[in-house]
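Q: Sequence in, structure out?
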Amino acid sequence: MVVLNLTKSAEFTITDDSEDDYQYEEVPTDDEFSLQEDDEDLSKALKTIQEQAEDAQILVRTS
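A: Exactly. Output:
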């Protein structure tokens, strides 16, 4: 019977040298990062754009 440990991330190593002589940075596949901060920035940007559009409509109506 074969039991696989699916909770551990796989490790990959590329040993073939590239032809462009570029030194690539090795990045572990299990790096954790959060997109929440970026999502908040996107939310703020969309809200700001919406508010600016509403302000522009108000200015057009009052002119």
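The radius of gyration is 25 Å.
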